[in-house]
Structure formats: C-alpha cells, structure tokens
Design a protein that fits this description.
There is one protein chain. The protein is α+β, with helices and mostly antiparallel strands. Strands 2-1-3-4 form a four-stranded mixed β-sheet. The protein is globular. The N terminus is likely disordered.
C-alpha cells in the first residue's frame, strides 16, 4: 500500500466526513467498493479517464452502470472528480476512503507478502504477534495476503509505520553485497 493511500486528499476527507455526519459510512464504503471492483475488472476505463480528449460526460457515462443506484453523495463525489479531471485517481481515492473507515473502526491492515501461502494457523499466529506489536486485539488486525514467489522463502510485512523484510531474497542480497564489498580492491 502506498504512502498516498494513507494520506487522504480533500475529496476523500469530505466524503468521509459527510458519511460520518449522515451515519452512512458503511453505505458509502460498500458503494465505493462496488465501483472499485468494476474499475478493477475494466482496466481500460482508468486509461480513458486520463485521456484529455474525452469529456467528463463521456467518463461519467462509462461509469453509469455501476453508480446509477448509488447514494447522491457518492454520485456527486464522482461527478466532482470528473469535473476536476481527477477520475483517474478514483481507485486510489477508494483505497483512501477504505483506509479512513478502517482507522475509524480501530482496525489496522497488515499487508503480508509471502513466498508461499500461509496456513490458517500461521495467519493466526501472525495476527496475534502484530496485535501485540501494535497494542491492539487480534480482532483489530486485518491481514491482506499476497504470494510473491520471488521472495524465495519467508515474508515481508507492511503495517504502518512498520516494514519488516524477513525474506530469503533479502538475506541473499545482503550476502551478495557483503561478498562484493570484500572482494572489491
């Protein structure tokens, strides 16, 4: 997860604040998640949003199938992004909104990359250790798991503000650096 995802912009903050005031945070989150899934399944749309020759009306028309039944606030949010030529940021803004909702609920997401899939018992142990590290209960830690075979073995953990790289790839890289440094004249 990028730095940008954890630092909401004014558009996201405004929609989040409105959702809190209207007691609609979960509704907004569900609607934005649905839009995010639609965009994920239609990657050419994001490229279209960056095309300066296409109008905001054209962009909004391409999103209508997914947001036609959304809250007027969410629809206005998307219309504002279209008007300001910021629709290409929509996937990132949806992640930012999700991050704010999790933060509001006291939930931390730990992004875990492992060389192989983790068993349920390994996930449980990892969640408990991360909970102790962050002074939370294990029910407040959400794991986002991805498999990266290039790690060779081990895992990487990113849970702001922590980053831990306990992969075999990292250790081999360190050995390579040390060996090259010692062999240099």
């Amino acid at each position: 997860m990028s730095f940008l995802t954890h630092h909401p912009n004014p558009y996201t903050k405004a929609l989040f604040q409105l959702g809190k005031e209207e007691n609609c945070l979960q509704v907004f989150k569900d609607q934005l998640d649905r839009i995010g899934l639609f965009l994920k399944n239609n990657p050419p749309l994001i490229n279209q949003f960056s095309n300066p020759f296409l109008t905001s009306a054209h962009h909004l028309n391409s999103l209508k199938p997914v947001f036609h039944d959304s809250s007027p606030y969410v629809v206005n949010f998307i219309k504002l992004l279209a008007k300001k030529k910021r629709l290409s940021l929509l996937p990132t803004l949806i992640k930012r909104f999700d991050y704010l909702c999790q933060k509001e609920a006291g939930i931390l997401t730990a992004h875990i990359q492992s060389a192989t899939s983790l068993s349920l018992s390994e996930q449980k142990v990892l969640r408990e250790k991360l909970a102790r590290l962050s002074h939370r209960s294990s029910s407040q830690i959400m794991l986002s798991l991805t498999i990266d075979p290039t790690l060779l073995a081990g895992l990487q953990i990113y849970m702001p503000p922590y980053f831990v790289d306990a992969s075999l790839r990292r250790y081999l890289h360190k050995i390579d650096l040390i060996a090259n440094d010692e062999l240099s004249p």
